[in-house]
Inverse folding.
């Protein structure tokens, strides 16, 4: 059956846990040097309309480790940049490759690509959500805590694509999520997405006070104040987010063994202090590594379930 990986709420709890279990197995194989060419002869097309370090390298390296191949495509070096419709690109790429990963701006474009594709489409980040990142984050939390039971996650900062992904993860997995965002509407999570998650029973609260959110949290997480595409708003945003830095003092409100996560790239001295990023709570390097393993699991599951 053709499945895509566009947002976490398209998948059940059982399915996401199954992906995390597979990611753990693939990580163990890679660390022990055991060959796992599960996708030998398979190809991934990667469309990037925004910059990337982790996503690009972890998908491409992951595909190599699985015995397959990845092709990097950007709007600048394909006909996408010259206006070829996504529905045409989707149908053509589907004749050549076994899966398509896309990083772009408008989430509707990813939905459009998936609607016209006959191979699985993976969302490598849109303005709305970044589901592969939160899979790596959940994997990292399980490694550190053992499970996702009785979990409280604190989100500090912008109500952006990462915040949205945490909201959908809280909906599907069932942990408690507390978000502290500045009061202005533009910095808060999208009301429809939030309402859909809480309507589905998610335990989510949104307020403005970082200390309230961090209190007794198992995980404290944040992200840049100006996401890709918001570069011109960076100075205005810096002012709006004063008081939303995750620093050593804020971390004292969280549980003693709390984990700090950040999808990276980080802006030290803005959304996170140097001391927290490099300090004992930080799991950011394992988190970045786990992008590789989580995405390998996603590719294996989607591509092997859709072998034609
Ligand atoms: N976290 C993340 O997606 O990083 P890149 O933008 O480097 O891919
Ligand atoms: N919110 C950030 C995440 C980067 C991985 C952005 O969209 O730029």
């Amino acid at each position: 059956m053709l499945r895509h990986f566009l947002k976490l709420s398209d998948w059940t709890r059982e399915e996401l846990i199954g992906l995390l279990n597979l990611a753990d197995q693939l990580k163990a194989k890679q660390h022990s040097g055991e060959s796992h060419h599960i996708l030998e002869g398979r190809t991934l097309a990667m469309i990037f309309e925004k910059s990337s370090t982790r996503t690009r390298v972890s998908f491409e390296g992951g595909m190599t480790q699985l015995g397959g191949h990845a092709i990097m495509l950007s709007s600048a070096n394909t006909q996408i940049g010259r206006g070829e419709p996504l529905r045409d690109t989707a149908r053509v790429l589907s004749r050549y490759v076994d899966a398509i990963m896309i990083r772009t701006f408008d989430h509707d474009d990813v939905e459009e690509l998936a609607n016209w594709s006959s191979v699985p489409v993976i969302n490598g980040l849109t303005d709305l959500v970044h589901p592969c990142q939160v899979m790596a984050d959940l994997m990292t939390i399980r490694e550190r805590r053992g499970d996702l039971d009785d979990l409280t996650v604190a989100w500090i900062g912008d109500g952006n694509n990462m915040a949205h992904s945490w909201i959908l993860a809280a909906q599907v997995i069932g942990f408690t999520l507390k978000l502290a965002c500045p009061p202005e509407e533009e910095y808060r999570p999208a009301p429809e997405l939030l309402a859909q998650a809480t309507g589905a029973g998610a335990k989510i609260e949104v307020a403005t006070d970082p200390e309230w959110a961090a209190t007794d949290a198992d995980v404290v997480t944040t992200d840049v104040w100006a996401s890709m595409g918001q570069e011109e708003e960076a100075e205005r945003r810096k002012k709006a987010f004063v008081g939303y830095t995750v620093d050593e003092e804020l971390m004292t409100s969280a549980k003693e063994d709390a984990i700090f996560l950040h999808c990276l790239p980080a802006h030290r001295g803005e959304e996170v202090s140097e001391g927290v990023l490099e300090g004992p709570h930080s799991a950011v390097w394992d988190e970045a590594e786990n992008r590789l393993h989580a995405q390998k699991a996603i590719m294996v599951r989607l591509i092997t379930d859709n072998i034609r």
